[in-house]
Amino acid sequence: MYRDTPHAIHLKDYQPPEFLIDRVELHFDLDPDRTSVESRLELRRNPAATRGDGSLRLHGEQLELETVEIDGNPLTGSEYVLDPESLTLHRVPDRFSLLTRVRIHPSLNTALEGLYQSGDMLCTQCEAEGFRRITYFLDRPDVMARYTTTLVADRARFPVLLSNGNLIEECRLEDGRHLARWEDPFPKPSYLFALIAGDLRAIEDRFTTASGRAVDLKIFVEPHNLDKCDHAMRSLKKAMRWDEERFGREYDLDVFMIVAVSHFNMGAMENKGLNVFNDKYVLARPDTATDADFDGIESVIAHEYFHNWTGNRITCRDWFQLSLKEGFTVYRDQEFSADVGSRGVKRIADVRLLRAHQFAEDAGPMAHPVRPDSYIEINNFYTATVYQKGAEVVRMQANLLGPDAFRQATDLYFERHDGQAVTTEDFVRCMEDASGRDLSQFRRWYAQAGTPELTMQGDYDPAAGVYRLSVRQFTPPTPGQPEKRPFHVPLAIGLLGDDGEDLPLRLEGDSQAPAAGTRVLELKAEEETFRFVGLDSRPVPSLLRGFPAPVKLRFDYGDRDLLFLMAHDSDGFNRWDAAQTLMQRLLLALVRDPDHGVLDAFFDAFREALLDAEGDRALLAEVLTLPSEGYLADQMDLVDVDGIHRARAGLERAIGGRLRADLLAVYRANAAEGCGYVFTPEEVGRRAIRNLALHYLMQSPDDETLGLCREQFAAGDNMTDVMAALRLLADHGGAEGAEALECFYRRWSRESLVVDKWFAVQASSPREDALEQVQRLLSHPDFSLRNPNRVRSLVGVFSVANQVRFHAADGGGYRFLADRILELDPLNPQIASRLLKSMIRWRRFDRTRQALMCDELRRILDAEELSKDVYEVASKALE
Ligand code: ARG
Ligand code: ZN
């Protein structure tokens, strides 16, 4: 049990800082076992501070304090108070210089927050509150200072020494040591501080900004990874150009650096001028990385780069405002990926993710608004809600304003708030001021949690030629918010005529008929009815085109209407959505009744889509992929774990059998043309549809399809095809599967990111012995609880992407997960807490499983010592 119950921090308690820091000079004597950090701060009382007793309380954790001096005078132990989280100085002048010296131990830092060792290098991660593990400081984002950082280290072990800003001095010292001094001209909050020391190599390039300034671009990696940086560099240059063109944002330093690190809690970090990345989002070669990896790199490189304006130049006032930078930056990276890739496919992928993770989060015990009201541990709030729903909230504003006004509004935001630490309220006010629109009701999207449910009903009056669409919104209660007020929801709607063409949407009272196509209506009341006039026959409504708002839709479509939309809707997203709804319906019927049967019309529609020669292949692959088991579970009041698995696997087998000839034809027609791997939307789409065809074929394999699979595994010059085949062989099992896994491991055992894939394939296998296999892999020499990517690939994948085995009725999966969380919590609370999230929605399951999950949650809460991170999630889950 956590001895004193950790207390929550509330947004309503925000107070401006009592002191400001203008300048920071840091001096690091780097050594993995024992690093000394000397800090000189220029402090002054904040004229805007509202209260305080005059004392200065600095954050600091796990620091060994050696010296404190004010204006050159050492303080004695009676002149300050130290506790495990802070250093308090009583009676300080209004303006003074503070020197502290502390010792820290990077090699013992397994939490990977602050300064830590990863392999042979030293690196930092300071967001959100890691800087306080490096030195005593006002570690809060509304304290922005100019930094000069001096790094001293052994020259042979750490030939490369990096920090934020520009390099201003470099020299050799005696005893084989050397020094590098970096200066960052831009004031920044402490969470954007970074340093790197290591034996690294870089690929270099150059970018000339729109106004003609030359920027050196460098990507640093360990020497053996130098051949895996080209895609990241290309992505970076594309992102830099795009931000100039789309948002008018130029880069502002002479150098931009990226470093790939193999031990990293999150995806990457936008430190000023020195982005530090999980190497998964940098390293790619066609034979080591899949199309999904290439995609991920392109968007994460862009995301972190975009933060330079949305996050760094303009930062957050406090951590409740996290979505100010994350929601906006995700919106920006999504738009970037849509522009450089295929917009339709990108939208589908983003909505899939939102529905799978954010909707689930919003319906569970950790549900919180985009701008949370309180937290115990801020690291628990780097969530799908803050990131993905936050991006949707920005997208809704962009769509309500339209492209021109939205651009004016973002220009205004960048101009008005450059150099400041601000709030989501400041962002919305810029939207209003630039456009003249009133967004007062819209602001509820930041404050109210929960996914609104829109129930729509349509009826057609042939005599009057009127189609009435009534819309009712309801948002279920979430923790701490029993009642919700109505949201301001943009609705993008179309009406299809008998021929499948868009009709003009003329509302009663319109003076003239609008052109045919999509019309954006705005729902503000709890209930509203829209009357469309001038319609000669009953239209088929295409609702929520392009997914204009993060809501759930209830509309009683007939199967024939869905098939019609799937075939004709001018909106690609809604064609996909109609197909998903159809499949979901069919699957849920099969869950309820295994003998339900599948109509020929379903296979016909599937075949027709599959053979559509003109269609965008990537889009097609999305249309023809069944909803995941997890998503199906979210559609049930009481999850039937085994029923869902049986139904989905059964339907896949039926598709594979019934459409065998067509699938084989598609597989053959989409063979690579021998020019080697290229990462273009067309080629990615071709591989996607081909591997999907093989997937269906392998659900009822015969000698021929097994042969194809084996061939693809052996021949594949690219990891996308090799992984697809490996997964199918491994799930097929037998000597064949074991041999493929064995051969893959032998080939790639030295490429850590590929070994992660090898673990993940086994962890996600629906085979009945999956848990035993995962247990065995725990003692594999390559498994380590200290590498987050490895933990995610085995334990994370098993608990998130293997519903049927993780939720096995005997509780083995739950016990396994709880054991790992208890082992991991003392080492790395952030990762432990993330893993726990797959067990907190226990209320949706049957009694037996509920009891089993609760037992494990209680066992975790009973542990001797528990991090705030895990305590918060486990206690909220049981509330
Ligand atoms: N700001 C980083 C990003 O680009 C994420 C940092 C997450 N840090 C954390 N402690 N959870 O999204
Ligand atoms: Zn971010």
TrEMBL record:
<feature type="domain" description="Aminopeptidase N-like N-terminal">
    <location>
        <begin position="36"/>
        <end position="192"/>
    </location>
</feature>
<dbReference type="Pfam" id="PF01433">
    <property type="entry name" value="Peptidase_M1"/>
</dbReference>
<comment type="function">
    <text>Aminopeptidase N is involved in the degradation of intracellular peptides generated by protein breakdown during normal growth as well as in response to nutrient starvation.</text>
</comment>
<keyword id="KW-0031">Aminopeptidase</keyword>
<dbReference type="InterPro" id="IPR027268">
    <property type="entry name" value="Peptidase_M4/M1_CTD_sf"/>
</dbReference>
<dbReference type="InterPro" id="IPR001930">
    <property type="entry name" value="Peptidase_M1"/>
</dbReference>
<dbReference type="InterPro" id="IPR014782">
    <property type="entry name" value="Peptidase_M1_dom"/>
</dbReference>
<protein>
    <recommendedName>
        <fullName>Aminopeptidase N</fullName>
        <ecNumber>3.4.11.2</ecNumber>
    </recommendedName>
</protein>
<comment type="similarity">
    <text>Belongs to the peptidase M1 family.</text>
</comment>
<keyword id="KW-0378">Hydrolase</keyword>
<dbReference type="Pfam" id="PF17900">
    <property type="entry name" value="Peptidase_M1_N"/>
</dbReference>
<dbReference type="GO" id="GO:0006508">
    <property type="term" value="P:proteolysis"/>
</dbReference>
<feature type="domain" description="Peptidase M1 membrane alanine aminopeptidase">
    <location>
        <begin position="232"/>
        <end position="445"/>
    </location>
</feature>
<dbReference type="InterPro" id="IPR024601">
    <property type="entry name" value="Peptidase_M1_pepN_C"/>
</dbReference>
<feature type="domain" description="Peptidase M1 alanyl aminopeptidase C-terminal">
    <location>
        <begin position="559"/>
        <end position="879"/>
    </location>
</feature>
<dbReference type="InterPro" id="IPR012779">
    <property type="entry name" value="Peptidase_M1_pepN"/>
</dbReference>
<dbReference type="GO" id="GO:0008237">
    <property type="term" value="F:metallopeptidase activity"/>
</dbReference>
<dbReference type="Pfam" id="PF11940">
    <property type="entry name" value="DUF3458"/>
</dbReference>
<dbReference type="GO" id="GO:0008270">
    <property type="term" value="F:zinc ion binding"/>
</dbReference>
<keyword id="KW-0479">Metal-binding</keyword>
<dbReference type="InterPro" id="IPR037144">
    <property type="entry name" value="Peptidase_M1_pepN_C_sf"/>
</dbReference>
<dbReference type="InterPro" id="IPR035414">
    <property type="entry name" value="Peptidase_M1_pepN_Ig-like"/>
</dbReference>
<keyword id="KW-0645">Protease</keyword>
<keyword id="KW-0482">Metalloprotease</keyword>
<dbReference type="InterPro" id="IPR045357">
    <property type="entry name" value="Aminopeptidase_N-like_N"/>
</dbReference>
<keyword id="KW-0862">Zinc</keyword>
<dbReference type="GO" id="GO:0016285">
    <property type="term" value="F:alanyl aminopeptidase activity"/>
</dbReference>
<dbReference type="InterPro" id="IPR038438">
    <property type="entry name" value="PepN_Ig-like_sf"/>
</dbReference>
<dbReference type="InterPro" id="IPR042097">
    <property type="entry name" value="Aminopeptidase_N-like_N_sf"/>
</dbReference>
<feature type="domain" description="Peptidase M1 alanyl aminopeptidase Ig-like fold">
    <location>
        <begin position="450"/>
        <end position="555"/>
    </location>
</feature>
<dbReference type="Pfam" id="PF17432">
    <property type="entry name" value="DUF3458_C"/>
</dbReference>
